C-alpha cells in the first residue's frame, strides 16, 4: 500500500521561499496569481497492517515533518 | 587602461559582485559596469559576467528565479551573437537554468554547503577561457550547496566528446578521482562551455584567488581573458 | 476596563511587586497591551534586572573606544577614520527548540545590530556549546545549528571566519548558540538610535509582521520545564535574502543624509525598538498600528507590538527625505511604511483604527525598570571519588586529539563560506584568531571567541579572568594589538544563590582581567535561566575579542616550515588539575591554573613586539591553552602536515607534567633563526626555551615515542564523521 504524506507550513509561519516566488510571478506580469505556498510530499510504501499506518503517522510527525513549524496530512494513493 | 568595458550583472542577492569587479578591473585591465537585474538594455556588449551569490535568495532552485529577469533575457539574446559570457557559482546555476549551458547543478552529495580550496585540472586549453592556463592544475576555492553537476548519460557523452569540459576537480597533481570530487559532480566536472564555445560556467571562484596574500591562480585566469575582448 | 487576573500577570512573568510598581507609574491599572509591553521591557532579556548592578562595574572606556555598551553594538577606533563595530548575542533557547531557525535568526539578529550602526558586516563568528555526544538530541542539534549559521551568513555573503564548538553534558538540555558579528564603518558615518525632532516620521521597513515568537523575550528569561516541549511558542523563521535586501538598502540610504535614528526590531520587536529610541532621545512617540504591515489577518495591537518577526527595522528620517527613503526601499523590493511620528509628550501613544489603545510614559518605564541585588552564596563543589586512570603520554595525546572537543572541526567550518568578500587572511582553523583585512588597506583586524567553562565552574572569578586572558593571548599570537571585547554571559537561574554567586564572580573576574590588560568591554549580552529540571549549565562567560594588526604582513597563523625552530615563551609549573590530561584520566577535581596578569601582560607584549620587530624570522605563533604544550605542538604538526622533534631531558613523570600542564601566559613562537629571539628575550628578561624543531614527517618526543603525522591527522579527522554518519 502506498500512502502520500503531504507536508506544509503551519498557519502563520513565515514562508520566505513562497514569498520570493510570488514576487517573481508578479514581476513576470501574472496578475491573476494571488498567493503561493510551499509544501512537499513523500510517497511511502507500508505493509497492510494497522501497525503500518500507525508507524507512518509516527514517522510523519517525528521525522518527515518538523512539528515546530510544519503540519502533515496522510492520503491513500 | 583599455577602453573596453566588462559588464557584471547584479541581482539583489548577488554577493560576489564586488569581489569579481575588483578582480576583473585589476587583472583584465578594463573598465567595469554593474548592470542591475531589471535593466533591459546592455550598453556594452563586449563581455558579460554573472557573479556568485544567491540572486533571489536561491529559493525554488538556485538561479531559477533569476532567469526571469530582463537582464538575463538580454544575456540570452547576446549569447546568440557570440558575446563571451562567464557565470561563476550562482552565475553557472543561472546559465544552466536558462539553458545556455547543459546540465543542472543539484544538491551536493552530502546535502551540505561546502567551502574549501579545490584543485582543478584544466581540460581544454583551446577554449578562449582557458588558453592562458595551458593544461595545468589551478587552485580556486568553492563555496556552494548546489554544485553537483548532473546531466543525462547521452548529454554527458556529448559534452565530453565535444571537449566542452574545461575544469575538473582533481588532486594537486592533477589526478581525477572520487577522492578529489568535493560535491559529487559527474566526471568531476567543475566548469563547462557551450557548443558554440562563447559561454562558460564554473562553480569554483577564480575571483577569490587573486590575492597576493593567498593564492594567485585566479590572476592567470583573468589575464587570459584580456585577449578575447 | 476589565481587571487583569493574577494568572495573566503571572503569565507575563511579572512579580506582584513589579505589578504594583507599574500601577504606581501609571496611576491606574494597565490594560493587556500595556501589561505585555511592561513584561517584555522589564524581562531579564531587555532590562538586565539581575545583572545591571554588576555589569556597571566593568571597564568600558579606553583610548580607542568610540562607543561602549548601551547602543546596538560597541565601536572601536582603528585609525584612518576607520572604526570597527561589534557585538555578540545569544540565541540559546530558540536554538534548542528549533536548531536550524534558532541559530539562523541568531546570526541575522546580530548582523542587524551591526549594520544598523552604519557598518558593513565583514565577519561572523560563533561560540557553540552542545550537550554530551551521548545525549540523544545532540546530533540533531549540532547538525541544525551549524547548517542554520552557515546558510544564513553564506546567503547574505558575510564570511563566517571562526569560533568555537564544544560538548559537555551540562548543556544536554540547554545548548548555547552565541553569535558574534564584526562590521566596518567610517568614523564619521556612524548611525545611532537616539530619536529626535518633534513631528519626524517613523518608518517601518522589512518583513511583514506575523505572530512569530510572541513573548520570545520573556521566554528567554524563563527556566525550561518538562512541558515546554509541547508548549512551544511560535518560532521565528529567518529569511537571509530579506536580510541581504535590508543590508544593501540601508547602506544605500545611509549615504543620503536622511536617517536621524535607526534600530533593528530584535527581541520584543516593535516595543523595544520604539521605546529604546524614544527613551534615548527623551521624546514621545505616536504609533498608528493599523499601518503596520501584517502577514496574518486580524492581528491585534498586542500581537503587533510584541511580535518578533525577523528582518525588520525601524527608523526616524528627515521629513524632507521620506519620499527618497521609500523609493530606495522600493528599488530593493522592500515594503516600507510610515507608521508613526516623534512627539514631545514623552509618552508612547498607540492608536489602532483611530482609537487610543495604549498610552505609556516612556522615561519612567525605561528608568524605573527593576534592578535586583540578588543574594548569592558560594556553591559547595561536590567531590566524587572516582577511579583515575593513568595514561601514557602517547595514549593521552591520541585520546585528546580524537576527542569530540579537540577533533578537527572541518565538518563544521567547511559549511561556512569563509572566503567571500576576499578579505579573509586567516580563518580560525589556521591560527589562534581569525584575521580579516580592512578592505582596500594594509591593515587587518583579528577576532577570537573564548571561554573555559570547566575552569569557570570550579572558580568562576579565575575562570572568567582566564577567558579574558586567553582571548587577549590569542589576539597577540595572531600578531595583533588587542583592543576591546564583547561578552556573552550565559548562566542558570539567577534567583538561585549559587548561580548568582557564579554571575557576580564571573563579572568580577572579567573586570579584573580587562583592567589589567587594558582591554575594555564595549558591548555584551546576558543569557540567564539556562537550566532544565533544576540542572544548570556550567557558567559560560564567552569573551569575543577584537584586535588591530597595523601591518598585514604581521598576521600570524599556525604556519611553519621545514627547519624552523619552536620556542616556548613563559614558565610552566606543571599544573595538571582540570587539564585535558586529567579529564582523559577521569579526574575532574581541582582548581584552574593560577593567572598572573602582570606576567600575562609582560609575556604578551614581548611576543607582540618581537613579531613587529623581527617579522621576517617569525613563521607562526600559537598560544598554549587546553591540552598544554603537547596539544599545541600536535595542532601545528597536523595543520602543516609536517613533523616535529621535541627535545627534553626531563624524567618521565616531569615530562608528562610539562607536556600536558595548562599553565597560563605561554606561547609557542615558530622561528627561522635563533639569534634574534635569544638576544631579544635577554634584553626583555623573558623566559624562553627552544623545545622543538620542524623536521621530517613524524611527531617525535625524543627517546620516548614517535608517531607519523599522517596517523595523527587520521585520529584527528575521525570523530565528527563517525558521529554524524551514525
CATH architecture of chain A: 2-Layer Sandwich
Rg of chain B, alpha carbons: 16 Å
Backbone shape of chain A? elongated
Total domains of chain B: 1
N- to C-terminal separation of chain A? 8 Å
Largest sheet of chain B: 9 strands, mixed
Largest interface: B-C, 29 and 29 residues
Fraction of residues in helix of chain A: 25-40%
- Classify the beta-strand content of chain A into a percent band: 25-35%
Please state how the strands of the largest beta sheet of chain A are arranged side by side.
2-1-3
Contiguous low-pLDDT stretches of chain A (5 residues minimum) are none
Protein structure class of chain B: alpha/beta
What does the oligomeric state look like here? heterotrimer
Name given to the CATH architecture of chain B = 3-Layer(aba) Sandwich
SSE sequence of chain B, one letter per element: EHEEHEHEEEEHEEEH
For the record, the count of structural domains of chain A works out to 1
CATH topology of chain B: Rossmann fold
CATH class of chain A: Alpha Beta
Cα-atom radius of gyration of chain A: 16 Å
CATH superfamily of chain B: Class I glutamine amidotransferase (GATase) domain
Quick overview of this protein structure:
Chain B has 229 residues and is an alpha/beta fold.
Report on this structure:
The complex is a heterotrimer of chains A (77), B (229) and C (726). Chain A has 77 residues and is an alpha+beta fold. Chain A is built from 2 helices and 3 strands. Chain B is α/β, with parallel strands linked by helices. Helix content of chain B is 21%, strand content 25%. Chain B has 5 helices and 11 strands. In chain B, strands 2-1-3-4-11-10-9-6-7 form a 9-stranded mixed beta sheet, with helices on both faces. The two termini of chain B are 13 Å apart. With 726 residues, chain C is an alpha+beta fold. Helix content of chain C is 36%, strand content 23%. The longest helix of chain C has 21 residues, at 497-517. The relative contact order of chain C is 0.13. Chains in contact: A-B, A-C, B-C.
Record the SSE blueprint.
The complex is a heterotrimer of chains A (77), B (229) and C (726).
Chain A lengths: L1 E8 L6 H13 L10 E7 L4 H15 L5 E7 L1
Antiparallel strand pairs in A: 1-2, 1-3
Chain B lengths: L4 E6 L6 H12 L2 E6 L10 E4 L19 H11 L4 E4 L1 H8 L6 E3 L7 E9 L14 E8 L3 E3 L2 H9 L3 E6 L18 E5 L5 E4 L14 H9 L4
Parallel strand pairs in B: 1-2, 1-3, 3-4, 4-11
Antiparallel strand pairs in B: 5-8, 6-7, 6-9, 9-10, 10-11
Chain C lengths: L5 H6 L4 H11 L5 H10 L2 H4 L4 H4 L9 E3 L6 E4 L4 E9 L1 H6 L1 H17 L4 E11 L7 H19 L3 E8 L8 E11 L14 E6 L9 H4 L20 H15 L4 E6 L4 H12 L3 E5 L12 H6 L5 E6 L4 H10 L4 E8 L3 E6 L2 E7 H6 L25 H9 L8 H4 L10 E3 L7 E4 L6 E7 L2 H6 L1 H18 L3 E10 L6 H21 L3 E7 L3 E2 L2 E2 L3 E10 L15 E5 L10 H5 L12 H17 L4 E6 L4 H13 L3 E3 L5 H9 L6 E5 L2 H11 L3 E7 L3 E4 L3 E4 H17 L1
Parallel strand pairs in C: 4-5, 9-12, 17-18, 24-27
Antiparallel strand pairs in C: 1-2, 2-3, 3-6, 4-6, 7-10, 7-11, 8-10, 9-11, 12-13, 14-15, 15-16, 16-21, 17-21, 19-20, 22-25, 22-26, 23-25, 24-26, 27-28
Amino acid at each position: 500500500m502506498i500512502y502520500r504524506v503531504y507536508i506544509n507550513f503551519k498557519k502563520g509561519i513565515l514562508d520566505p521561499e513562497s514569498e520570493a516566488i510570488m514576487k517573481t510571478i508578479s514581476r513576470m506580469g501574472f496578475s491573476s496569481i494571488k498567493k503561493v505556498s510551499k509544501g512537499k510530499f513523500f510517497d511511502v510504501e507500508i505493509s497492510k497492517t494497522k501497525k503500518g499506518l500507525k508507524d507512518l503517522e509516527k514517522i510523519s510527525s517525528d521525522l518527515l515533518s518538523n512539528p515546530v513549524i510544519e503540519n502533515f496530512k496522510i492520503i491513500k494513493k | 587602461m583599455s577602453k573596453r568595458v566588462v559588464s557584471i550583472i547584479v541581482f539583489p542577492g548577488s554577493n560576489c559582485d564586488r569581489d569579481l569587479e575588483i578582480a576583473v578591473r585589476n587583472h583584465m585591465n578594463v573598465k567595469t559596469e554593474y548592470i542591475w537585474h531589471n535593466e533591459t538594455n546592455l550598453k556594452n556588449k563586449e563581455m558579460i559576467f554573472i557573479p556568485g551569490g544567491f540572486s533571489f535568495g536561491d529559493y525554488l532552485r538556485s538561479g531559477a528565479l533569476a532567469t526571469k529577469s530582463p537582464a538575463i533575457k538580454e544575456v540570452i539574446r547576446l549569447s546568440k551573437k557570440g558575446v563571451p559570457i562567464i557565470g561563476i557559482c550562482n552565475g553557472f546555476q543561472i546559465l544552466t537554468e536558462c539553458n545556455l549551458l547543459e546540465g543542472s547543478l543539484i544538491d551536493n552529495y552530502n546535502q551540505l554547503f561546502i567551502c574549501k580550496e579545490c584543485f582543478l585540472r584544466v581540460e581544454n586549453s583551446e577554449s578562449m577561457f582557458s588558453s592562458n592556463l595551458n593544461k595545468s592544475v589551478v587552485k580556486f576555492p568553492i563555496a556552494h550547496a548546489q554544485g553537483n553537476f548532473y546531466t543525462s548519460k547521452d548529454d554527458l557523452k556529448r559534452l565530453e566528446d565535444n571537449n566542452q569540459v574545461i575544469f575538473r576537480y582533481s588532486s594537486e597533481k592533477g589526478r581525477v578521482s572520487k577522492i578529489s570530487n568535493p560535491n559529487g559532480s559527474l566526471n568531476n566536472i567543475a566548469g563547462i562551455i557551450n557548443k558554440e564555445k562563447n559561454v562558460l560556467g564554473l562553480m569554483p571562484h577564480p575571483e577569490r584567488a587573486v590575492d597576493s596574500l593567498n593564492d594567485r591562480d585566479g590572476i592567470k585566469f583573468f589575464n587570459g581573458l584580456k585577449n578575447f575582448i | 476596563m476589565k481587571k487583569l487576573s493574577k494568572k495573566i500577570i503571572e503569565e507575563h512573568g511579572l512579580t506582584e511587586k513589579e505589578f504594583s510598581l507599574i500601577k504606581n507609574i501609571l496611576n491606574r491599572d494597565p490594560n493587556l497591551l500595556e501589561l505585555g509591553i511592561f513584561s517584555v521591557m522589564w524581562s531579564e532579556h531587555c532590562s538586565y534586572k539581575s545583572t545591571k548592578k554588576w555589569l556597571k562595574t566593568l571597564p568600558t572606556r579606553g583610548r580607542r573606544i568610540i562607543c561602549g555598551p548601551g547602543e546596538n553594538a560597541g565601536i572601536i577606533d582603528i585609525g584612518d577614520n576607520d572604526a570597527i563595530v561589534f557585538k555578540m548575542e545569544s540565541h540559546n533557547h530558540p536554538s534548542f527548540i528549533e536548531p536550524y531557525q534558532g541559530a539562523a535568526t541568531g546570526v541575522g539578529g546580530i548582523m542587524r545590530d551591526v549594520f544598523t550602526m552604519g557598518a558593513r558586516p565583514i565577519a561572523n563568528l560563533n561560540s557553540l556549546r552542545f550537550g554530551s555526544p551521548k545525549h540523544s538530541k545532540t546530533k540533531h542539534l549540532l547538525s541544525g545549528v551549524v547548517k542554520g549559521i552557515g546558510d544564513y551568513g553564506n546567503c547574505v555573503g558575510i564570511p563566517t571566519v571562526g569560533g568555537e564548538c564544544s560538548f559537555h553534558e551540562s548543556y544536554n538540555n540547554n545548548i548555547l548558540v552565541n553569535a558574534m558579528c564584526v562590521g566596518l564603518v567610517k568614523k564619521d558615518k556612524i548611525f545611532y538610535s537616539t530619536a529626535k525632532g518633534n513631528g519626524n516620521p517613523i518608518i517601518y521597513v522589512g518583513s511583514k509582521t506575523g505572530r512569530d515568537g510572541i513573548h520570545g523575550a520573556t521566554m528567554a528569561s524563563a527556566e525550561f520545564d518538562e512541558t515546554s516541549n509541547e508548549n512551544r511558542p511560535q518560532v521565528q523563521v529567518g529569511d537571509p535574502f530579506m536580510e541581504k535586501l535590508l543590508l544593501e538598502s540601508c547602506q544605500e540610504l545611509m549615504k543620503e543624509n536622511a536617517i536621524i535614528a535607526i534600530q533593528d526590531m530584535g527581541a520584543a520587536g516593535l516595543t523595544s525598538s520604539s521605546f529604546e529610541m524614544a527613551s534615548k532621545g527623551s521624546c514621545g512617540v505616536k504609533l498608528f498600528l493599523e499601518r503596520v504591515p501584517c502577514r496574518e489577518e486580524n492581528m491585534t495591537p498586542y500581537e503587533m507590538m510584541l511580535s518578533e518577526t525577523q528582518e525588520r527595522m525601524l527608523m526616524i528620517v528627515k521629513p524632507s527625505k521620506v519620499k527618497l527613503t521609500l523609493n530606495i526601499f522600493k528599488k530593493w523590493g522592500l515594503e516600507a511604511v510610515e507608521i508613526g511620528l516623534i512627539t514631545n509628550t514623552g509618552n508612547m501613544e498607540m492608536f489602532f483604527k483611530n482609537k487610543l489603545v495604549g498610552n505609556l510614559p516612556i522615561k519612567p518605564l525605561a528608568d524605573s525598570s527593576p534592578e535586583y541585588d540578588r543574594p548569592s552564596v558560594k556553591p559547595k563543589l561536590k567531590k566524587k571519588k572516582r577511579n583515575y586512570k593513568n595514561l601514557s603520554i602517547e595514549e593521552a595525546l591520541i585520546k585528546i586529539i580524537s576527542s569530540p572537543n579537540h577533533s578537527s572541526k572541518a565538518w563544521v567550518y567547511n559549511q561556512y563560506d569563509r572566503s567571500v568578500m576576499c578579505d579573509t587572511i586567516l580563518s580560525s582553523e589556521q591560527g589562534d584568531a581569525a584575521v580579516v583585512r580592512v578592505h582596500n588597506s594594509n591593515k587587518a583586524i583579528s577576532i577570537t571567541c573564548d571561554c573555559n567553562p570547566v575552569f569557570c565552574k570550579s572558580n568562576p572569578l579565575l575562570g572568567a579572568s582566564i577567558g579574558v586572558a586567553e582571548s587577549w593571548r590569542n589576539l597577540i599570537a595572531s600578531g595583533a594589538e588587542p583592543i576591546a571585547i564583547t561578552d556573552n554571559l550565559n548562566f542558570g537561574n539567577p534567583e538561585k544563590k549559587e548561580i548568582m554567586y557564579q554571575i557576580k564572580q564571573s563579572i568580577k573576574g572579567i573586570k579584573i582581567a580587562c583592567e589589567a590588560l587594558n582591554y575594555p568591554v564595549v558591548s555584551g549580552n546576558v543569557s540567564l535561566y539556562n537550566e532544565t529540571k533544576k540542572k544548570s549549565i556550567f557558567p559560560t562567560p564567552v569573551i569575543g575579542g577584537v584586535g588591530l594588526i597595523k601591518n598585514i604582513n604581521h598576521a600570524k597563523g599556525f604556519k611553519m616550515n621545514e627547519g624552523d625552530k619552536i620556542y616556548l615563551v613563559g614558565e610552566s609549573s606543571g599544573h595538571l588539575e582540570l587539564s585535558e590530561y586529567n579529564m582523559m584520566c577521569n579526574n575532574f577535581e581541582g582548581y584552574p591554573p593560577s593567572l598572573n596578569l602582570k606576567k600575562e601582560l609582560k609575556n604578551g607584549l614581548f611576543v607582540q613586539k618581537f613579531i613587529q620587530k623581527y617579522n621576517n624570522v617569525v613563521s607562526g605563533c600559537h598560544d598554549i591553552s587546553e591540552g598544554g604544550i603537547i596539544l599545541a605542538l600536535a595542532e601545528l604538526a597536523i595543520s602543516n602536515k609536517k613533523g616535529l622533534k621535541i627535545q627534553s631531558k626531563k624524567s618521565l613523570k616531569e615530562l608528562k607534567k610539562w607536556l600536558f600542564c595548562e599553565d597560563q601566559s605561554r606561547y609557542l613562537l615558530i622561528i627561522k633563526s635563533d639569534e634574534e629571539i635569544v638576544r631579544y628575550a635577554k634584553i626583555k628578561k623573558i623566559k624562553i626555551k627552544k623545545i622543538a624543531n620542524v623536521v621530517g614527517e613524524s611527531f617525535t618526543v625524543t627517546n620516548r615515542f614517535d608517531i607519523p603525522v599522517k596517523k595523527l591527522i587520521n585520529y584527528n579527522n575521525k570523530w565528527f564523521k563517525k558521529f554524524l554518519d551514525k
